[in-house]
Amino acid sequence: METARLLISCPDRPGIVATVAGFLAERGANIVALDQHSTGGADGGEFFMRLEFDPQGGGFDEAAFGPIAERFAMDWHVAQPGHRKRVAVLVSRYDHCLVDLLWRWRRGELLGDIGLVLSNHPALRDEADRAGVEFACVPVSPETKPDAERQMLELLGDRFDLVVLARYMQILSATFLAQVGCPVINIHHSFLPSFAGAEPYRRAADRGVKLIGATAHYVTADLDDGPIIEQDVQRVHHGHDVEALTRIGEDVERTVLARAVQWHLDDRVLVHGPRTVVFS
Amino acid sequence: METARLLISCPDRPGIVATVAGFLAERGANIVALDQHSTGGADGGEFFMRLEFDPQGGGFDEAAFGPIAERFAMDWHVAQPGHRKRVAVLVSRYDHCLVDLLWRWRRGELLGDIGLVLSNHPALRDEADRAGVEFACVPVSPETKPDAERQMLELLGDRFDLVVLARYMQILSATFLAQVGCPVINIHHSFLPSFAGAEPYRRAADRGVKLIGATAHYVTADLDDGPIIEQDVQRVHHGHDVEALTRIGEDVERTVLARAVQWHLDDRVLVHGPRTVVFS
Amino acid sequence: METARLLISCPDRPGIVATVAGFLAERGANIVALDQHSTGGADGGEFFMRLEFDPQGGGFDEAAFGPIAERFAMDWHVAQPGHRKRVAVLVSRYDHCLVDLLWRWRRGELLGDIGLVLSNHPALRDEADRAGVEFACVPVSPETKPDAERQMLELLGDRFDLVVLARYMQILSATFLAQVGCPVINIHHSFLPSFAGAEPYRRAADRGVKLIGATAHYVTADLDDGPIIEQDVQRVHHGHDVEALTRIGEDVERTVLARAVQWHLDDRVLVHGPRTVVFS
Amino acid sequence: METARLLISCPDRPGIVATVAGFLAERGANIVALDQHSTGGADGGEFFMRLEFDPQGGGFDEAAFGPIAERFAMDWHVAQPGHRKRVAVLVSRYDHCLVDLLWRWRRGELLGDIGLVLSNHPALRDEADRAGVEFACVPVSPETKPDAERQMLELLGDRFDLVVLARYMQILSATFLAQVGCPVINIHHSFLPSFAGAEPYRRAADRGVKLIGATAHYVTADLDDGPIIEQDVQRVHHGHDVEALTRIGEDVERTVLARAVQWHLDDRVLVHGPRTVVFS
To answer: Which residue of A has its CA nearest to B20?
Structure first.
């Protein structure tokens, strides 16, 4: 059964669920999963909903839904049955996140397709080749950064619905982010907001923390400060030096990033200001 | 804001969400939270839904909802605004689960009220007294068990919506369970189905497991085999003997039982044959 | 069997284990548990060891061990068989950590004895009374703080081996810490270094983290910056507001604090500069 | 620095640590890590120790250690500096465990070398080829099993120190296990002893458990009953069908198996009857 997915955010008020569910029922669609969240509060709060449904032939009628969306001032997104998001992965030299994403894609765990691996180093070309994915290398230096980013934007074009930074070690400029035209997910190798910035494993070792973690978040112009999609941690102890923390942490990184990407591709994540609503 | 909670199970088919949400919208009720689950499958599957809503004066109109429930063959339950479930706790000599439940109740973490502590030993009378809860002691021996259970049923009467077995060390007969007239939640001190039956910590030590756990489940006539509400585990190692496993496990037990009781009191648990649907 | 516990830190070099184990073997002592950690490094690194042993009558001969300790420049501490550390607990109005510690003490989970509950509010007097523990109330205001701390130091005297801040909401001055004469353990209600300082749960909600945590650490003059003994986290989601985070977090707090206190009382924690070595 | 690793099990009695540490100290060896465990008990109990040390040229003198081992009736094993264990991996058609082990090996996370991938299906030949590892396919049917096992034993020869069953879907006979001549580690796709035997994910779904797990254990003639090395679990809920449990579980499987293999290769695991002592 091919299902469609509908994501809605809007100011909360009575009747939204009834109206949307009524719209679907009139067209014979059967709701398979419905998740809803309201923030409450004095002003009515914000309303968030994810619907997964079998639209029974012809797909979800976007034009007919327009007036409803307008009436409730909805911010909405629909993924029609069979739609798969197109993904570009940016990497540098660390392979663990890329290898994991490619492997999950090959075995059918991703509701999307990886169409490009873009790197500032040639190191991971073989991984892309083996998976049959286009690889492009755009070196970046402080002097060439604006040019490099222009070149990257050209390579990306409008071919992608999602860009994943799988340990891409360059900071993307606000200009790049404004022009990339799709959401960007990053994996940070610490349990944010702890150890934002550089060398989190070394700083975790210095501080003597007993758990290390990783954070997947949407990228905004403020470094390491975008809406968090997923985090996880692993227990460590005094016997683990920076190298051991790094090795343990890399396992957390690839798991956390995979979950965040899967949830995004499955239309389970809504951005709510500096935070996310995740219907996992 | 006082909310009502509506729980529904029925055969799945198109239009259920629209009908129920429409019913609420017509009466001006605002849906605060909606969780829905469908099992799918060839025959349409089963449909489960939890609605939390502000019924806007007068509460939820059960009589008006009757025909809808009938139309969809619903098994349904409503908790009107302000309703608190009444709880009886059965214990023996272990104090950890009782102490934790009483403490959570006192600090307002339970959407219900503990009205009776019933034990086959006098050991925990002081704990009940300190919390200002009625305590009754009904000793049980193999010979007196039928009499004891009759006495317990009389003490319980129809005063309670939930019975919690907080490490009650007697096995309740099928007769008792048939007559108690409300759900019964038990905490088993293992990660079921591992180590069902007696002495799970000793058997866990013998088997050399690396995690020990606890399981909260609804009690059925089949011992340790009722629908599981919640489970959790804690890491252990070769240095932990039976006594250490017991101490570590008791922390898991009280946490798992508290979650299961809270979710039940909050109308978040639906029974689905031998399993549960938990909207946590 | 009554065991003694010996904790040693010193510069690493060959022969330390052999010498200490030889000293014990000559006296017929049987080693029950031995944990050792070396930091390595160019200069030989630091050496840490915990020994638990049955000294076979007469206890551990501290005088005879002196020359060995001197030879290796050891920082060392011995807990003779049967020794129980004396503990004072400082609290304010939150009860969860105190209730948990008193309960664990009553049921024999602590290798020490709680002899004083000291608070800046009268709120938790009943909890101390019920456990049969001395309670003292020393209110603190910005103006009276120096006087209050003097009064607290007098109440503590030299009666205690450990002071536990079980959600004590006042900041202790460097003067107090210099004079208290024993280690001080604090529980901070966040996963440090995230959300050091005030209102961690509100700030966690604002940042939209997906896990919340607690940290038990030794108190130093730098607020929330002392050596971390233990940390743990619990998964949360967008549906949890500040109140829910607080309730979930309090369960983590009491668990993490209990572990840290147990490990300290069991002589399992060594301080290594800004970090700890924990032989758990 | 190249270290040696010494593993010892023997009946417990005073003086073992002193004797072994003294032996090393006399030869100028520096102990880097020492873990010790005693089971205690009326008869003195069992003693287990792992020593990691820098033998300072020439390696550990096994001949000189012989009399000590004999005096204490030691079961012992030494890994000389630089020694890497040789590993054969048996697989069928599931790729997740093999892919993960090969990837960890390539990036230097294993203290050993994978020298053979042996399968009853040709499906994973490409994975072995890409890693540059010998691949052999020995189909197995009920009729050909004795022959197939003989052929497998020939292929293995005495070339390997460890055999890893990375979701090998055939049951090895007692004859094979008696002749293979090295330890065999298996990954079972459940939290043993729950769901021993076939189809654990389907049975987990039927039982409605709230956590699923995996277990790595040494293989003995009793199926799924060998000494457990490592276990872990992942939270699941009513929305996860068998397919989802399988996908989530496979992530647990590969993580648990990798840890068990790493610990074995690092000489951190001692077998103690039906259990293990793991110095992780």
So the answer is: A18
Query: Which amino acid, one-letter code, is at A200?
Result: P
Contact D22, D51 (CB under 8 A): no
Put simply, the chain A residues between 70 and 129 with a CB less than 8 A from any chain D CB are 95-96, 99, 103, 107, 109
Q: Looking at the partner chain, which of A18, A29, A32 has a beta carbon nearest the beta carbon of B25?
A: A18
pLDDT band at D44 (very low <50, low <70, confident <90, very high): confident
- B interface test, pick of D194, D222, D224 with most B CB neighbours within 10 Å: D194
Q: Is pLDDT of B41 > 70?
A: no
A40 SS3 class: coil
Shortest CA gap A274–chain C (Å) = 7
Contact at CB, A99 and D103, closer than 8 angstroms = yes
Residue C206 has pLDDT above 70, yes or no: yes
Mean pLDDT of A246-257: 97
Q: Output the pLDDT for position C56.
A: 82
Q: Which residue segments constitute the domains of chain B, with CATH numbers given? A: 4-79 (3.30.70.260), 85-278 (3.40.50.170)
- Give me the pLDDT at residue D40, please: 76
A41 interface with C at CB cutoff 8 Å: no
User: Residue D57 pLDDT > 90, yes or no?
Assistant: no
The nearest CA of chain D is from the CA of A105 a distance in Å of 13
Shortest alpha-carbon distance between residue D233 and chain A (Å): 13
pTM of the model: 0.96
Mean pLDDT of chain D: 95
